[in-house]
Design goal:
The protein is mainly alpha-helical and 136 residues long. Helix content is 54%, strand content 0%.
Length: 136
């Protein structure tokens, strides 16, 4: 139902903004000035502001309907977000994947990915002598 209101609103905006051919009938309806249209629109807005004071029951029901539609839209957006997150998000986090590591004898992925060169101790220079005879 709300969709129909939105469609009607946008269609009316499009129809108002479309250029029209000059009127050949010369009627008064075709000779509306922009200032007259603006004053009529402002009078309509002023009248709509007073609607809740004239019709408090309709205003409260409208408020409840608007809140319900808002909650439904929020729940629908959350469901859509969750659905798209599940379907489009990558399933791996970019960390080490199971296929990039080595496998052990049973074929399982192993975290032991160091090579023998990695396990070898780093080079250390010659140790200083602790002999006191050579220091003098």
């Amino acid at each position: 139902m709300f969709f129909l209101f939105r469609v009607a609103f946008w269609l009316s905006i499009v129809l108002i903004l479309l250029p029209s051919a000059p009127s050949q009938s010369g009627s008064e309806a075709a000779k509306i000035d922009t200032g007259d249209a603006m004053s009529a629109a402002s009078a309509t807005v002023t009248d709509l502001r007073q609607f809740c004071s004239r019709q408090p029951e309709a205003c409260s029901v409208g408020t409840q309907v608007a809140m319900t539609i808002g909650y439904k839209a929020q729940a629908g957006a959350k469901m859509l977000y969750d659905f798209l997150s599940e379907r489009l998000a990558p399933h791996d986090t970019g960390s080490i994947s199971a296929t990039s590591g080595k496998t052990d004898r049973a074929g399982r992925s192993s975290q032991n990915t160091l090579t023998p060169a990695d396990l070898a101790p780093s080079w250390r220079g010659p140790q200083a002598r602790k002999d006191a005879k050579h220091s003098a």
